[in-house]
Amino acid sequence: MVGMMIEEAIDPGLPICDPHHHLWDGPGERGRYLLDEYLEDAGGGHKIAKTVFVECGAMYRKDGPAEMRPVGETEFAQGVAAQSASGQWGTTAVAAGVIGFADLTLGAGVAPIIEAHLAAGKNRFRGIRQSCTWDGDRAILTMGKGKGMMLDTKFREGFACLQRYGLSFDAWQYYTQLIELADLAKAFSDTPIIVNHTGGLLGIGRYAGKRQEVFQEWKRGVTELASCPNVMMKLGGLGMPRCGFGWHEQINPPSSTELAVAMGPYYRFCIEVFGTERCMFESNFPVDKVSYSYTVLWNALKRICEGCSPKERSALFHDTAVKAYRLERSNHA
Protein backbone atom coordinates (compact mmCIF):
# COMPACT_ATOMS: atom_id res chain seq x y z
CA MET A 1 0.00 0.00 0.00
CA VAL A 2 0.98 3.65 -0.26
CA GLY A 3 2.78 5.35 2.60
CA MET A 4 0.66 6.38 5.53
CA MET A 5 -0.88 9.86 5.74
CA ILE A 6 -1.26 10.86 9.39
CA GLU A 7 -4.19 13.08 10.38
CA GLU A 8 -6.06 13.77 13.58
CA ALA A 9 -9.69 12.61 13.49
CA ILE A 10 -12.18 15.36 12.66
CA ASP A 11 -15.27 15.57 14.91
CA PRO A 12 -14.22 12.50 16.92
CA GLY A 13 -17.42 12.41 18.95
CA LEU A 14 -19.69 11.70 15.97
CA PRO A 15 -20.93 8.08 16.24
CA ILE A 16 -20.25 5.97 13.15
CA CYS A 17 -21.73 2.68 12.00
CA ASP A 18 -19.40 1.27 9.36
CA PRO A 19 -21.81 -0.77 7.20
CA HIS A 20 -19.28 -2.43 4.93
CA HIS A 21 -16.01 -4.11 5.79
CA HIS A 22 -14.47 -7.54 5.38
CA LEU A 23 -12.43 -9.94 7.50
CA TRP A 24 -10.34 -12.81 6.19
CA ASP A 25 -7.30 -14.97 6.81
CA GLY A 26 -5.65 -17.14 4.25
CA PRO A 27 -2.82 -17.68 1.78
CA GLY A 28 -2.14 -15.39 -1.14
CA GLU A 29 -2.08 -11.62 -1.51
CA ARG A 30 -5.09 -10.94 0.72
CA GLY A 31 -3.17 -12.14 3.78
CA ARG A 32 -4.55 -11.70 7.27
CA TYR A 33 -7.21 -9.16 8.19
CA LEU A 34 -9.07 -10.16 11.32
CA LEU A 35 -10.55 -8.40 14.32
CA ASP A 36 -7.29 -6.98 15.65
CA GLU A 37 -6.23 -5.62 12.25
CA TYR A 38 -9.60 -3.98 11.71
CA LEU A 39 -9.59 -2.43 15.18
CA GLU A 40 -6.07 -1.13 14.64
CA ASP A 41 -7.21 0.64 11.47
CA ALA A 42 -10.37 1.89 13.16
CA GLY A 43 -8.51 3.11 16.23
CA GLY A 44 -7.34 6.42 14.82
CA GLY A 45 -9.74 8.60 16.76
CA HIS A 46 -13.12 8.26 15.06
CA LYS A 47 -15.99 6.89 17.14
CA ILE A 48 -16.79 3.59 15.40
CA ALA A 49 -19.80 2.37 17.36
CA LYS A 50 -20.63 -0.75 15.35
CA THR A 51 -20.01 -2.43 12.01
CA VAL A 52 -21.53 -4.73 9.43
CA PHE A 53 -19.48 -7.65 8.10
CA VAL A 54 -20.02 -8.27 4.37
CA GLU A 55 -19.27 -11.57 2.67
CA CYS A 56 -15.94 -11.89 0.87
CA GLY A 57 -15.48 -15.61 0.22
CA ALA A 58 -13.68 -16.24 3.51
CA MET A 59 -13.72 -19.29 5.76
CA TYR A 60 -16.05 -21.44 3.68
CA ARG A 61 -16.69 -24.92 4.99
CA LYS A 62 -14.23 -27.50 3.71
CA ASP A 63 -16.77 -30.28 3.29
CA GLY A 64 -20.41 -30.78 2.45
CA PRO A 65 -22.46 -29.69 -0.59
CA ALA A 66 -20.73 -26.89 -2.49
CA GLU A 67 -23.76 -24.60 -2.33
CA MET A 68 -23.83 -24.92 1.48
CA ARG A 69 -20.14 -24.20 2.10
CA PRO A 70 -20.55 -20.37 2.23
CA VAL A 71 -22.42 -20.85 5.52
CA GLY A 72 -18.98 -21.32 7.06
CA GLU A 73 -18.32 -17.63 6.49
CA THR A 74 -21.37 -16.68 8.55
CA GLU A 75 -20.22 -19.07 11.29
CA PHE A 76 -16.83 -17.33 11.22
CA ALA A 77 -18.38 -13.83 11.32
CA GLN A 78 -20.64 -14.84 14.19
CA GLY A 79 -17.56 -16.00 16.11
CA VAL A 80 -15.83 -12.66 15.51
CA ALA A 81 -18.97 -10.82 16.62
CA ALA A 82 -19.09 -12.84 19.82
CA GLN A 83 -15.39 -12.13 20.38
CA SER A 84 -16.01 -8.42 19.93
CA ALA A 85 -19.10 -8.49 22.17
CA SER A 86 -17.03 -9.91 25.03
CA GLY A 87 -15.92 -6.36 25.81
CA GLN A 88 -12.24 -7.30 25.85
CA TRP A 89 -11.62 -5.67 22.45
CA GLY A 90 -12.97 -2.21 23.13
CA THR A 91 -16.34 -0.57 22.63
CA THR A 92 -16.85 -1.13 18.89
CA ALA A 93 -19.47 -3.81 18.17
CA VAL A 94 -17.77 -5.45 15.21
CA ALA A 95 -20.02 -7.55 12.94
CA ALA A 96 -23.18 -6.45 14.75
CA GLY A 97 -24.80 -7.28 11.41
CA VAL A 98 -23.69 -10.03 9.02
CA ILE A 99 -24.22 -10.29 5.26
CA GLY A 100 -23.55 -13.69 3.71
CA PHE A 101 -23.46 -15.28 0.28
CA ALA A 102 -25.96 -17.69 -1.20
CA ASP A 103 -26.32 -18.49 -4.89
CA LEU A 104 -29.70 -17.06 -5.84
CA THR A 105 -29.46 -18.64 -9.30
CA LEU A 106 -30.44 -21.88 -7.54
CA GLY A 107 -33.96 -20.46 -7.55
CA ALA A 108 -36.26 -21.75 -4.84
CA GLY A 109 -33.53 -24.26 -3.99
CA VAL A 110 -31.63 -21.48 -2.21
CA ALA A 111 -34.09 -21.57 0.72
CA PRO A 112 -32.27 -24.24 2.78
CA ILE A 113 -29.00 -22.30 2.41
CA ILE A 114 -30.62 -19.11 3.63
CA GLU A 115 -32.08 -21.00 6.59
CA ALA A 116 -28.62 -22.36 7.42
CA HIS A 117 -27.19 -18.83 7.34
CA LEU A 118 -29.93 -17.63 9.68
CA ALA A 119 -29.18 -20.45 12.10
CA ALA A 120 -25.42 -19.82 11.96
CA GLY A 121 -25.74 -16.05 12.32
CA LYS A 122 -28.18 -16.32 15.19
CA ASN A 123 -29.65 -12.85 15.70
CA ARG A 124 -27.03 -11.04 13.57
CA PHE A 125 -27.70 -12.33 10.04
CA ARG A 126 -29.28 -9.61 7.93
CA GLY A 127 -29.06 -10.40 4.25
CA ILE A 128 -27.43 -11.83 1.14
CA ARG A 129 -24.87 -10.39 -1.23
CA GLN A 130 -24.23 -12.01 -4.59
CA SER A 131 -21.99 -10.22 -7.03
CA CYS A 132 -23.64 -9.50 -10.38
CA THR A 133 -20.65 -7.58 -11.76
CA TRP A 134 -20.14 -8.01 -15.50
CA ASP A 135 -18.42 -6.06 -18.25
CA GLY A 136 -17.50 -6.90 -21.82
CA ASP A 137 -13.98 -5.54 -21.32
CA ARG A 138 -11.69 -8.32 -20.13
CA ALA A 139 -9.63 -5.76 -18.20
CA ILE A 140 -12.62 -5.42 -15.86
CA LEU A 141 -13.03 -8.14 -13.25
CA THR A 142 -16.28 -10.07 -13.72
CA MET A 143 -17.58 -11.84 -10.62
CA GLY A 144 -21.19 -12.37 -11.71
CA LYS A 145 -22.57 -15.17 -13.86
CA GLY A 146 -22.75 -13.23 -17.10
CA LYS A 147 -24.58 -10.37 -18.77
CA GLY A 148 -28.16 -9.79 -17.67
CA MET A 149 -27.85 -11.86 -14.49
CA MET A 150 -30.35 -9.73 -12.56
CA LEU A 151 -32.95 -10.29 -15.27
CA ASP A 152 -32.53 -14.07 -15.18
CA THR A 153 -35.65 -16.01 -14.20
CA LYS A 154 -33.84 -18.41 -11.87
CA PHE A 155 -31.99 -15.57 -10.13
CA ARG A 156 -35.26 -13.77 -9.53
CA GLU A 157 -36.86 -16.94 -8.23
CA GLY A 158 -34.09 -17.12 -5.64
CA PHE A 159 -34.29 -13.39 -4.98
CA ALA A 160 -37.98 -13.80 -4.11
CA CYS A 161 -36.94 -15.90 -1.10
CA LEU A 162 -35.37 -12.88 0.61
CA GLN A 163 -38.69 -11.26 1.46
CA ARG A 164 -39.98 -14.52 2.91
CA TYR A 165 -37.14 -14.54 5.43
CA GLY A 166 -37.17 -10.79 6.09
CA LEU A 167 -33.74 -10.27 4.54
CA SER A 168 -32.19 -7.48 2.47
CA PHE A 169 -30.02 -7.73 -0.63
CA ASP A 170 -26.61 -6.09 -0.94
CA ALA A 171 -26.21 -5.25 -4.62
CA TRP A 172 -22.75 -5.29 -6.16
CA GLN A 173 -22.63 -4.50 -9.87
CA TYR A 174 -21.01 -1.90 -12.12
CA TYR A 175 -22.53 1.48 -12.94
CA THR A 176 -23.38 0.23 -16.45
CA GLN A 177 -25.82 -2.24 -14.82
CA LEU A 178 -27.73 0.24 -12.65
CA ILE A 179 -30.77 0.35 -14.93
CA GLU A 180 -30.92 -3.44 -14.74
CA LEU A 181 -30.73 -3.22 -10.94
CA ALA A 182 -33.55 -0.65 -10.94
CA ASP A 183 -35.69 -3.12 -12.90
CA LEU A 184 -35.03 -5.72 -10.21
CA ALA A 185 -35.87 -3.23 -7.47
CA LYS A 186 -39.19 -2.38 -9.10
CA ALA A 187 -40.07 -6.04 -9.53
CA PHE A 188 -39.42 -6.70 -5.81
CA SER A 189 -40.50 -3.43 -4.26
CA ASP A 190 -40.95 -4.96 -0.80
CA THR A 191 -37.35 -6.22 -0.58
CA PRO A 192 -34.75 -3.71 0.71
CA ILE A 193 -31.80 -3.34 -1.67
CA ILE A 194 -28.58 -1.73 -0.46
CA VAL A 195 -26.32 -0.69 -3.33
CA ASN A 196 -22.62 -1.21 -2.63
CA HIS A 197 -19.72 1.12 -3.45
CA THR A 198 -21.56 4.11 -4.90
CA GLY A 199 -22.99 1.99 -7.70
CA GLY A 200 -19.78 0.55 -9.11
CA LEU A 201 -17.84 3.29 -10.91
CA LEU A 202 -15.19 2.25 -13.44
CA GLY A 203 -12.12 4.13 -14.63
CA ILE A 204 -9.81 1.51 -16.15
CA GLY A 205 -9.81 -0.47 -19.40
CA ARG A 206 -12.17 1.06 -21.93
CA TYR A 207 -13.36 3.55 -19.29
CA ALA A 208 -9.93 5.08 -18.68
CA GLY A 209 -9.77 8.80 -19.47
CA LYS A 210 -13.56 9.07 -19.76
CA ARG A 211 -14.40 10.31 -16.27
CA GLN A 212 -16.94 12.93 -17.34
CA GLU A 213 -18.70 10.56 -19.75
CA VAL A 214 -18.84 7.88 -17.04
CA PHE A 215 -20.09 10.45 -14.51
CA GLN A 216 -23.03 11.42 -16.70
CA GLU A 217 -24.08 7.82 -17.40
CA TRP A 218 -23.62 6.96 -13.72
CA LYS A 219 -25.89 9.87 -12.73
CA ARG A 220 -28.65 8.58 -15.00
CA GLY A 221 -28.46 5.15 -13.40
CA VAL A 222 -28.36 6.54 -9.85
CA THR A 223 -31.35 8.78 -10.55
CA GLU A 224 -33.36 5.80 -11.80
CA LEU A 225 -32.44 3.81 -8.71
CA ALA A 226 -33.37 6.68 -6.42
CA SER A 227 -36.92 6.51 -7.80
CA CYS A 228 -37.25 3.10 -6.10
CA PRO A 229 -38.20 3.63 -2.42
CA ASN A 230 -36.77 0.25 -1.40
CA VAL A 231 -33.23 1.13 -2.55
CA MET A 232 -30.49 2.63 -0.37
CA MET A 233 -26.94 3.64 -1.33
CA LYS A 234 -23.59 2.99 0.32
CA LEU A 235 -21.19 5.85 -0.31
CA GLY A 236 -17.70 4.41 -0.52
CA GLY A 237 -15.49 2.03 -2.44
CA LEU A 238 -13.82 4.65 -4.64
CA GLY A 239 -10.40 3.59 -3.37
CA MET A 240 -10.58 0.39 -5.41
CA PRO A 241 -8.08 0.62 -8.31
CA ARG A 242 -10.79 -0.23 -10.87
CA CYS A 243 -12.44 3.13 -10.13
CA GLY A 244 -9.47 4.75 -11.82
CA PHE A 245 -8.47 7.47 -9.35
CA GLY A 246 -4.93 6.10 -9.06
CA TRP A 247 -4.41 6.87 -5.38
CA HIS A 248 -2.82 3.45 -4.87
CA GLU A 249 -0.02 4.47 -7.24
CA GLN A 250 0.83 7.81 -5.63
CA ILE A 251 4.18 8.21 -3.90
CA ASN A 252 2.55 10.53 -1.38
CA PRO A 253 -0.81 9.24 -0.15
CA PRO A 254 -3.83 11.52 -0.55
CA SER A 255 -4.95 13.80 2.25
CA SER A 256 -8.56 13.94 3.39
CA THR A 257 -8.90 17.29 1.62
CA GLU A 258 -7.73 15.77 -1.67
CA LEU A 259 -10.10 12.83 -1.25
CA ALA A 260 -13.02 15.11 -0.42
CA VAL A 261 -12.51 17.08 -3.63
CA ALA A 262 -12.44 13.92 -5.77
CA MET A 263 -15.21 11.99 -4.00
CA GLY A 264 -17.48 14.93 -3.23
CA PRO A 265 -19.33 15.22 -6.57
CA TYR A 266 -20.36 11.55 -6.47
CA TYR A 267 -21.43 11.44 -2.85
CA ARG A 268 -23.21 14.78 -2.89
CA PHE A 269 -25.18 13.78 -5.98
CA CYS A 270 -26.31 10.56 -4.28
CA ILE A 271 -27.33 12.53 -1.19
CA GLU A 272 -29.24 14.97 -3.40
CA VAL A 273 -31.33 12.31 -5.17
CA PHE A 274 -31.65 9.69 -2.40
CA GLY A 275 -31.71 11.95 0.65
CA THR A 276 -29.63 11.35 3.75
CA GLU A 277 -32.20 8.87 5.09
CA ARG A 278 -31.26 6.48 2.25
CA CYS A 279 -27.49 7.07 2.11
CA MET A 280 -24.74 5.73 4.38
CA PHE A 281 -20.97 6.13 4.32
CA GLU A 282 -18.88 2.92 4.24
CA SER A 283 -15.18 2.10 4.59
CA ASN A 284 -14.87 -0.98 2.35
CA PHE A 285 -11.80 -1.95 4.36
CA PRO A 286 -9.38 -3.57 3.89
CA VAL A 287 -10.01 -3.38 0.12
CA ASP A 288 -9.79 0.43 0.02
CA LYS A 289 -6.76 0.40 2.32
CA VAL A 290 -4.58 0.19 -0.78
CA SER A 291 -5.43 3.86 -1.41
CA TYR A 292 -5.75 5.58 1.98
CA SER A 293 -5.92 5.03 5.71
CA TYR A 294 -9.12 4.50 7.66
CA THR A 295 -8.75 7.72 9.64
CA VAL A 296 -8.07 9.85 6.55
CA LEU A 297 -11.06 8.31 4.75
CA TRP A 298 -13.54 9.21 7.50
CA ASN A 299 -12.03 12.69 7.71
CA ALA A 300 -12.70 13.09 3.98
CA LEU A 301 -16.29 11.93 4.40
CA LYS A 302 -16.81 14.42 7.23
CA ARG A 303 -15.39 17.20 5.06
CA ILE A 304 -17.76 16.30 2.21
CA CYS A 305 -20.86 16.84 4.33
CA GLU A 306 -19.70 19.92 6.25
CA GLY A 307 -22.80 21.76 5.04
CA CYS A 308 -25.21 19.14 6.34
CA SER A 309 -27.30 19.62 9.46
CA PRO A 310 -26.52 17.58 12.60
CA LYS A 311 -29.50 15.33 11.82
CA GLU A 312 -28.30 14.75 8.26
CA ARG A 313 -24.76 13.96 9.43
CA SER A 314 -26.11 11.54 12.01
CA ALA A 315 -28.06 9.77 9.25
CA LEU A 316 -25.11 9.53 6.87
CA PHE A 317 -22.63 8.28 9.45
CA HIS A 318 -24.83 6.14 11.67
CA ASP A 319 -28.62 6.20 11.60
CA THR A 320 -29.30 5.10 8.00
CA ALA A 321 -26.99 2.10 8.34
CA VAL A 322 -28.48 1.09 11.69
CA LYS A 323 -31.99 1.29 10.23
CA ALA A 324 -31.06 -0.49 6.98
CA TYR A 325 -29.46 -3.42 8.78
CA ARG A 326 -31.96 -3.44 11.66
CA LEU A 327 -29.33 -2.98 14.36
CA GLU A 328 -29.76 -1.69 17.88
CA ARG A 329 -29.15 2.03 18.07
CA SER A 330 -25.74 2.77 19.58
CA ASN A 331 -25.55 4.31 23.02
CA HIS A 332 -25.12 8.11 22.94
CA ALA A 333 -25.87 8.16 19.20
State the strand order across the main sheet.
Answer: 1-4-5-6-7-8-9-10
User: Segments where pLDDT lies below 50 for 5+ residues?
Assistant: none
- Tally the helices: what do you get? 9
Count of structural domains = 1
Describe the structure.
With 333 residues, the chain is an alpha/beta fold. The protein is 35% helix and 15% strand. The strands form 2 sheets. The protein has an 8-stranded parallel sheet. A two-stranded antiparallel sheet has the order 2-3. Strand 8, helix 6 and strand 9 (231-235) form a beta-alpha-beta unit. Helix 6 (211-226) packs parallel to helix 7 (256-274).
TL;DR?
The protein is an alpha/beta fold and 333 residues long. Helix content is 35%, strand content 15%. The chain has a single domain (16-324), classed as TIM Barrel (Alpha-Beta Barrel).
Which helices and strands occur, and which strands form pairs?
Layout: E1 15-21, E2 24-25, E3 32-33, H1 35-42, E4 47-54, H2 71-85, E5 93-100, H3 111-121, E6 125-131, H4 153-164, E7 168-172, H5 178-187, E8 193-195, H6 211-226, E9 231-235, H7 256-274, E10 279-281, H8 294-304, H9 310-324
Parallel strand pairs: 1-4, 4-5, 5-6, 6-7, 7-8, 8-9, 9-10
Antiparallel strand pairs: 2-3
Helix pairs in contact: 2-3, 5-6, 6-7, 7-8
